Amino acid sequence: MDDCFSGDDDEEYYCSDRDSLNGLENEDSEYDWVPPKGPSTKVITKESLLSAQRGDLRRVMDLLSLREHHARTLLIHHRWDVEKLLAVLVEKGKACLFADAGVPLTEDQDLSFPKQSSSTIMCDICIEELPGHLTTRMDCSHCFCNDCWTEHFVVKINDGQSKRIKCMAHKCNAICDEAVVRDLVRRRHPDLADKFERFLLESYIEDNKMVKWCPSTPHCGNAIRIEEDECCEVECSCGLQFCFSCLSEAHSPCSCLMWELWSKKCRDESETVNWITVHTKPCPKCHKPVEKNGGCNLVSCICGQAFCWLCGGATGRDHTWSNIAGHSCGRYKEDQEQKSERAKRDLYRYMHYHNRYKAHLDSFKLENKLRETIQEKVSVSEEKESALRDFTWVTNGLYRLFRSRRVLLYSYPFAFYMFGEELFKDEMTTEQREIKQHLFEDQQQQLEANVERLSKFLEEPFDEYDEKKVMDVRMHVINLSVVTDTLCRKMYECIENDLLGCLLLGTHNIAPYKSKGIERAAALNAKADESDKCLPLDFGKAEPDRPSGSGSLDDGGRSSRKRARKEGLVGALIDLNVPAGGY
Question: Contact 233/245 with Cβ under 8 angstroms?
Fold first, then answer.
């Protein structure tokens, strides 16, 4: 079976489906869009990363009267979740909060850097007595020579522990001051000190559940920060739309688990194996699959072994029209028949859903051509002397077509798992499954019919029509746009309330439906203090904090998957998107 995800020239299609509902001015009251409260997602760039981190740092510093180093230690320990940090503070108290994170309770003493002793001190690591200016004392009061500290820091950074380097003293859990680490390491290894600095800064992204790198390839250099729900779909400023939870393409109404299973099912050879099970039988000698190409039930493998097609048993080659010499397989074997029938049923079921999924995917790609043709039609229509001068209804109708087609596209993988036995076998009775399936398929069928009607009217040559006929097409497009939007919303409500509402809550959450499409993240205002040190970051998609020698960070380059933009369509920008999933 051909890989259904393979595409010509490995080209990836995607677009933004949120740009084109501005200027929607129609008499229909149902088309009055409620203005959004403002973007709840932010794009963090190289310039704004330091500012984003400073905001959380200052909040903790002001609340607990801490220095920046200790505030960062607390935030890294709690994965930059300020609310969780405050909850631990209220529940367990300051002493427990500090002890768990490795912050010493000595904030009132003068610990300004450099923390050096003025007397001669014996270093307990190298067992040498050294003058005070060659030693350093940490916040936990442990003091060792600078050479030992430096070697300790270098080893920890190379071992991938640069964000939480503990004191060398036995059973001491205090985290070393980052300023001390930076200064001592830089004296001998400037490059390693820069790496340490970079990992501290990028820990805001790597360790923060509310911030994730944009998964664009090549990497655009951006990260996305959300404010509330982790189960959402976002659009980076580079144009890539993705699921924030699993970082794959935007796939609602499929849950992340459903989409992962569907992608794997289409990508690997699971259905090829099913086809082989249904249409071939193994040779009893070499065990290779053999396909029958004639009517006779005595089959020969390429290895020379003859066997009976009915039962798979090895036989001789002598046979008549009615039987094979020395062989009888008239006994019914229920297990083998059931296994074959089950494999055949599973294959046909998968083909049913995959064929419809693929059909909408193909329609999505073909409808990309509508953009240019509609642009030409609008240009021709605007040049005519007509009372109808506003053609935003075409732009909005095209947008709604793309948005609704996406919902239909992903509704088939959802239905495949929702009403199958792989995920919810024990969650519903057969009767309950049939009722839910009929409910969902009725809504799916209504949406499908209206989407196809909308597509038909948008393909009309309205530039050749008279004014009366154009007005008729206009009303059909506007009405169908409203209807498809309503049906999409009702389908999501059905999925969330009637289908998934009582099943495995938290396991199959889906991104909410938004009429205006996936929200594009707004740029985070980069207003770092002038005193803030702007680091020369190689701000690509960060590699994990790992031992040295395993590669450097990639350069942040512009994504090759940029959203296609063209002038026209009465100033509205539409990006024609087919999900980026290896097609």
Answer: no
Predicted local distance difference test score (pLDDT) of residue 262: 92
Q: Name the residue among 473, 411, 475 with its Cα closest to residue 446.
A: 411
**Whole-angstrom distance, CA of residue 324 vs CA of residue 296:** 10
Does pLDDT of 334 surpass 80?
no
What is the gyration radius of the CA atoms in the chain, in angstroms? 32
Q: Which residue has the tokens 């009607």?
A: 453
Which positions are annotated as active-site residues? Answer: 296
pLDDT tens column, 197-213? 888 888 888 888 889 99
Tokens of 534: 């702007």
Do β-strands 280-282 and 289-291 pair in parallel, antiparallel, or remain unpaired? Answer: antiparallel
Q: Report how far residue 525's alpha carbon sits from residue 537's, in angstroms, rounded to the nearest whole number.
A: 18
Give CA–CA dist 460/473, Å, rounded: 8
Cα 221 from Cα 68, distance rounded (Å): 26
**Could you tell me if 570 and 392 are in contact, meaning their C-beta atoms sit under 8 angstroms apart?**
yes
Q: 487 vs 32, 341, 361, 405, 494, CA distance in Å?
A: 17, 37, 19, 12, 10
566 and 583 Cβ atoms separated by less than 8 Å: no
DSSP alpha helices (H): ranges in 190-309? 190-206, 256-267, 270-279
Q: Encode pLDDT of 561-570 as tens digits.
A: 333 333 333 3
Cβ atoms within 10 A of the Cβ of 221, count?
23
Q: Please state the pTM of the whole predicted model.
A: 0.68
Length of the chain in terms of residues written: 583
CA angle 331, 335, 336 (to 5 degrees): 75
Q: What dihedral angle (degrees, nearest 10) is formed by the CA atoms of 27, 31, 32, 38?
A: -150
Q: Write the DSSP symbol of residue 176.
A: P
Quote the CA–CA distance of 161 and 546 in Å, as a whole number.
8
